[in-house]
Automatic annotation (TrEMBL), chain A:
Phylogenetic classification of the source organism: Archaea, Candidatus Parvarchaeota, Candidatus Parvarchaeum
Roadblock/LAMTOR2 domain mapped to chain residues: 8-98
Source superkingdom: Archaea
Taxonomic source organism: Candidatus Parvarchaeum acidiphilum ARMAN-4
Protein name in UniProt: Roadblock/LC7 family protein
């Protein structure tokens, strides 16, 4: 039986074959990196801490507006990079870094499929 | 005989050391005549342990011989260098790899070649002959490949002979071993033949995905060694560091949380607007063989909804207070509760201890109702004239170091 990190890694590897996805990582909701497929010059520790706090803040913000459902995703955009963070169960967040000039709809679909898988792996 | 010329030129015996935090503290190095097995599971590399042990010893004057069948001497040395462990004149390699690949390796004063690594007798006689040349430490990288190449019982009998030579030459040995699922009987025999076994494994506990080492046995320390599993990270450059994935830094507004994190780490980042942290600070600390990721909370009440997430999975806390503002102390204690870290190992940092109106340590203890077992450390700005209210202030390293070492001691 593959370890959890091997299973998570294989989910990320499959995602990386989707056009436009440049990097991806699974981080914990409290800001620790778990597995990542990232360029070597990115510090996954800082990235995970910042992304998790974005998701945490967004969750609080959206709740304070009266949202009845849980937060689905947070998107941050610049001209050259778009980062999407998708909640994957209670403990984990899937984050992907994409090229903004690609098929965004397909990527969202694939990432939400992947997040369901990740949630399942985390529950094992 | 391990020869070491001290500063005054006298020769004295010293034992080889691991050069790895926690291991040296607990095992007091590797005594003469002893053999240590570093046993890893396949998902975790143990070669960096070898590099770091070699690096530590060649730099303290110990002559080290590496029996190498895992890779070529050139790539071995390059890999070591990537971890910032350059070789020196004390390092010797016995190359049992190049002969397999058919690539001719050039012998030098420091690299000797076993021409036919398929020949048990040549391997054996060359290794045993080499051991007579006054090495303080022998590193076998790797023992499992030796067992794969010939067979496990040969590897064990060979190890017995190495052990005899190590004992008669007063040197020590480190064997790197990866357990690829060998028969338990064989592995048990191997374990019972060495003086100490250090296990290196992966860990997946809730959201902590990492690697740890643990001392399974050590016959030169009385009783069972008190070393439970220690999380580590192999960092390039830098090598093996005992690792704390999350330490919380919290405390009231403007106490100096960001200043503490920025002063303690080289690469800290903050999310701040107008001089106050609004989401979090994050920094990685490298300190005397330890590595820790610090997570700093905002201090203002309106960010309290974030505190729980920041506190989760933390294993220790730095609580920062402003020595001149006792009226904020109840808020400090409240923050421990809100981050749900109350009861974790904590070191209290009384910052701004040199400012006018700063309370004395005893007074702070009393007002915070601190148990006498809790460490309280005072910190001050490096240069008061450079304090800018919109930037984290650089704090004097004495206080920072004292605080780091106090908390790290409690955490392992």
């Amino acid at each position: 039986m593959a370890t959890k990190s091997e299973q998570l890694k294989s989910v990320l590897q499959r995602l990386s074959t989707v056009g436009g996805i440049k990097a991806s990582a699974v981080i914990s909701s409290n800001g620790l990196p778990m597995v990542s497929l990232m360029p070597e010059d990115v510090d996954p520790n800082t990235f995970a801490a910042m992304l998790a706090s974005m998701v945490g803040s967004a969750e609080t913000a959206i709740k304070s507006l009266g949202a009845k459902n849980t937060l689905e995703r947070v998107v941050a955009e610049s001209k050259d990079i778009r980062v999407v963070a998708v909640q994957a169960g209670e403990d984990a967040i899937l984050t992907i870094m994409i090229d903004p000039n690609t098929n965004y709809g397909l990527i969202l679909l694939e990432s939400s499929k992947a997040s369901t898988e990740i949630a399942g792996i985390m529950k094992q | 005989m391990v020869e070491y010329k001290g500063l005054d030129g006298t020769e004295e015996d010293i034992d080889p050391y691991f050069g790895i935090a926690k291991l040296d503290e607990q095992l007091k190095g590797i005594p003469e005549k002893k053999m240590v097995l570093i046993s890893a599971s396949p998902s975790v590399g143990n070669e960096v342990f070898g590099y770091q042990i070699i690096h530590k010893n060649i730099n303290s004057g110990v002559k080290v011989l590496v029996f190498l069948n895992r890779t070529s001497p050139q790539s071995y040395l390059t890999d070591m260098k990537d971890y910032d462990f350059p070789a020196n004149d004390n390092l010797f390699i016995l190359d049992a790899y190049s002969g397999i690949t058919g690539i001719k390796s050039n012998e030098t004063d420091h690299i000797k070649v076993i021409d036919n690594p398929y020949d048990k007798e040549e391997v054996k006689s060359k290794v045993l002959e080499a051991l007579n040349h006054g090495y303080g430490l022998i590193v076998i990288d790797s023992f499992s490949l030796l067992a794969d190449f010939f067979d496990f019982s040969f590897a064990i009998s060979f190890m017995d002979e190495i052990k005899k030579a190590v004992i008669s030459n007063n040197s020590a040995a480190v064997l790197l071993f990866t357990d690829w699922g060998y028969e338990k009987e064989n592995v048990d025999k191997l374990l019972s033949n060495v003086n100490s076994t250090i296990e290196v494994k992966g860990i997946e506990k809730r959201v902590i995905f990492g690697q740890y080492f643990a001392v399974l046995k050590c016959d030169w320390i009385e009783g069972t060694p008190a070393l439970a599993s220690v999380l580590f990270k192999a960092i390039k450059p830098g090598g093996i560091k005992v690792y704390f994935p999350k330490i919380l830094v919290t405390g009231p507004t403007d106490a100096g949380k960001s200043s503490f994190i920025h002063s303690a780490s080289k690469d800290a980042v903050s999310v701040d607007k107008l001089g106050g942290t609004i989401a979090l600070d994050h920094g990685s600390v490298d300190f005397r063989g330890y590595r820790a990721d610090l997570f700093g909370t905002p201090g203002q009440e309106r960010f309290d909804p974030l505190l729980k997430m920041l506190g989760e999975e933390a294993i220790g806390v730095f609580l920062i207070v402003d020595s001149t503002k006792p009226e904020q102390f109840p808020r400090a204690v409240e923050m421990l509760r809100k981050t749900e870290t109350y009861g974790l190992p904590v070191v209290v940092i009384a910052n701004k201890a040199d400012l006018k109106g700063a309370l004395k340590s005893d007074e702070i203890r009393e007002k915070l109702h601190l148990d006498s077992a809790i460490t309280l450390i005072s910190t001050v700005a490096e240069d008061l004239s450079k304090v800018d209210p919109n930037e984290p202030t650089k704090l004097k390293s004495e206080g920072i170091n004292e605080a780091l070492s106090a908390l790290f001691k409690q955490l392992t």
